[in-house]
Amino acid sequence: KHLSFLPASMYTEIQRERPDGGNILTHPDYIDGNPDLIKPKKLLNPVKASKSHQELHRELLMNHKRGLGVESKPELQRVLEHRRRDLLIKQKKEEEEAKKLQSPFEKELLKRHQRLDQLEKEQEKQEDHAPEFIKVKENLRRTSTVTGDEKAA
């Protein structure tokens, strides 16, 4: 309050003379060179410390020195991708040949088998929707016919 009448240059000089200087950041104690204090070490970045990161970085530097772009892949990776692609193409061709080698008889059997499976599934769904007293009645009929046949024998 009492400094408000001073000119701006005087105010700035007083600010400079103050020991804290209005500085929010404090200076660390280890800069003083006190031998009793343990100086902190910079923490390692786990990503940069990893082997894969170091290898990738080394490869990028080598490619940059050679003048290759980032988009170009290493030779090993290109060869492996080419082999995978060839293997997939070969498998697809084998599957197509296996389909062609099926005789018309085998195809027809497969179709009938699929239709039978579908019919069985539909019957199971219908049985699940039937009321429970009908299911119990059917079970009673089965047991009564079995016992009647056993008596006759």
UniProtKB/TrEMBL annotation:
Highest taxon in the source lineage: Eukaryota
Compositional bias segments (type: Basic and acidic residues): 116-141
GO biological process: actin filament bundle assembly; actin filament polymerization; regulation of actin cytoskeleton organization
Assigned GO CC terms: focal adhesion; neuron projection; nucleus; plasma membrane; stress fiber; synapse
Region (Disordered): 116-153
Function summary: Stress-inducible actin-binding protein that plays a role in synaptic and cognitive functions by modulating actin filamentous (F-actin) dynamics. Mediates polymerization of globular actin to F-actin. Also binds to, stabilizes and bundles F-actin. Involved in synaptic function by regulating neurite outgrowth in an actin-dependent manner and for the acquisition of hippocampus-dependent cognitive function, such as learning and long-term memory.
This protein's name: Actin-associated protein FAM107A
Annotated source species: Sapayoa aenigma (broad-billed sapayoa)
Taxonomic classification: Eukaryota, Metazoa, Chordata, Craniata, Vertebrata
